[in-house]
Each structure stands twice: as structure tokens, then as C-alpha cells.
Amino acid sequence: MKGLRMTIAKHTIVTILDTLGENDFVNIIAYNDYVHFIEPCFKGILVQADRDNREHFKQLVDELQAKGVGTVSKALTESFKILREFREAGQGGLCNQAIMLITDGAVEDYEAVFEKYNWPDRRVRVFTYLIGREVTFAPNVKWIACNNKGYYTQISTLADVQENVMEYLHVLSRPMVINHDHDIIWTEAYMDSALFASQAQSLLLMTTVAMPVFSKKNETRSHGILLGVVGSDVPLRELLKLAPRYKLGVHGYAFLNTNNGYILSHPDLRPLYKEGKKLKPKPNYNSVDLSEVEWEDQDEIVRLRHLGEKKFQKPPYCTGGKALQAINHLREKIKK
């Protein structure tokens, strides 16, 4: 795979990465004469598809070079092994497991690999993307997808990438339609551009609540057709109003975090930085782990031990929600 085909393949991978979110886990395997993970540090594992990891993968994909002959069977075997280990370890929600095979042709159908690792349960869906206009190997590539509960698409030009990549989402959504599941999701925190220029910092952070909309027509219900997504934007300050302040106490505070432990709202979350006279959002402001702001700062403890010194003029402050302990410590110092 070289030239335009390689460019289309890279763009396909990047587009697939853009469809993933914090609740997804991913890895990328490059295969030629041998199989290798494009990021050696992630060898044999799946990593969370957060923004940092996705951007890192995109950079590595852009650096890929074509050489040798692609050994699809070895790549499929390695992929099935990783997914099996992930499944047996009980990691993640185990909602869907899928392999995205991006190739410019398959000389065989690799039935032996699927029979060993995926049949008869077919727990892993295999989606195939045939790159280029060549149709000689199309039957094999299509057979792989159709016999593993996946979907086959052929991508001939860069303009076809976006539309064809999105097809796998419709396939994954079919069981939800048939089972009448309407999962509600909340997105990570983000900044509304309309509010950014005029409103205070507390108004900037927002989240979106969304759920899928399926076709309920009797003639199409068994097809599992996803019509779209309905959602509403919610300012985080509105959610914080639900916190009972009278129960929190003087030194208590409310915070919001996602199911992945990333902060939506916290007193110690500072999503902006100053560049000249302008305030700009930090690159990872919506992927700050709760432990980063709640973890006790040892330097603060040392500072609080010297509160009795007259040189100290600033009010006592302790990170990680430990203000009450700091005050009690100060009281004991005064008694002595």
C-alpha cells in the first residue's frame, strides 16, 4: 500500500479515532512482514481513547511508512488475543468489541483464524475497509466482515472516507434499537464559544446530555435504524445549584466528575491560562483527573506546621478539601 492508497488509509484511521470517546478503549497495530504496535509502550493492551491518546495516535499514524507485504492473519490473531484478555479480565463495560481491518486487499478469507478465535459466539465484530478502486480481492474482504457480524465498505477517494467510516456506528447501534435501550450519556466539560468572550469563567464550562433516537416503525424495527441523536447543553453552574449548601457546611464544597474520573467542576479546577491580556483554555482542561486536585499536597502540610510564625501573613489554605483539618491543627498550635 503506497501513494494515494496510503494517504486514504491514514485518513481513515484518523477519522475512526475521531469517532471514539473517553468510554472507548483502542490500540493500533501496523502489519507488514511482521506485526508491531505503532506505540511500543501500549504493546498488548488497550488504552483509553481520551483526547491525549487520540492525538498521540494520530501523530504516529502520520509517520507510518509502507514496506513489505501485509500479513493480515498475524494482525488478526494479535487483535483477537488482546480483546480476549481484555474481556476475560473484566475490564471496561464490555459493551462492544470490534476490529477495524484497513487493507488494500486480502488474498484469502482467513477462516482458520476466525474459527479459532471468534466462532461460534462471534463476540468480536470485524469491520473491513477496502482501500482503492481495485475489486479483485473484494469478495474475500466482504466475506470477512459479513461472517463476523461486521460491515464492509470500499473507500476509493479521500472524499469517501467520512461517509464510509460512519457506517460502523449504525451496525453497533442495532442491538440497542432491537432491545429498546436508550442509554443517556453526559459529555466531558467543554467551553461554549458564544459565552467565552463575554461571560465570567464560571459560565464557560458546559456539558451535553444526549440520547439516541431510533426508528420504531414496525416494518423497520428489526433493522435497527439509528435516526439521530437528541441532546441539550447544560451549564455546569446549573447542576451545582442542585447541591444542598446547607448540608455541605462552611468548609464543604460540591464538585462534579465523569464516570471516568475526569473533573467537570471543582473549586481547584483552573481551565484557563493567561497569554498576554487574553485568557485561553488549557489543552487538557476537560481531562483533569480528580486525583490531581484532591491529592494532598505535602508542601502545604509543611507550611501549615509553621503557622505560628509571625512572618506568615497569608490566610491558611490546604488543597484537596483538607481545610477543616488545617484549622483544627491551627487550633492545637494556639492552645500550646
TrEMBL record:
Question: Which keywords annotate this record?
Answer: Calcium, Calcium channel, Calcium transport, Disulfide bond, Glycoprotein, Ion channel, Ion transport, Membrane, Metal-binding, Signal, Transmembrane, Transmembrane helix, Transport, Voltage-gated channel
Q: Where are the transmembrane segments?
A: none
PANTHER family (UniProt xref) = VOLTAGE-DEPENDENT CALCIUM CHANNEL SUBUNIT ALPHA-2/DELTA-RELATED, VOLTAGE-DEPENDENT CALCIUM CHANNEL SUBUNIT ALPHA-2_DELTA-4
Any one GO cellular component localisation term in the record: voltage-gated calcium channel complex
Pfam families to which the protein is assigned, alphabetical: VWA_3
Output the Gene3D superfamilies linked to this UniProt entry: PAS domain, von Willebrand factor, type A domain
Main localization category: membrane
Tell me the protein's name: Calcium voltage-gated channel auxiliary subunit alpha2delta 4
What kind of membrane protein is this, topologically?
Single-pass type I membrane protein
- Where is the VWFA domain positioned along the sequence? 1-172
**What is the native source organism of this protein?**
Catharus ustulatus
Membership in a protein family:
Belongs to the calcium channel subunit alpha-2/delta family.
Subcellular location per the Swiss-Prot or TrEMBL entry: Membrane
Any one GO MF annotation of this record:
voltage-gated calcium channel activity
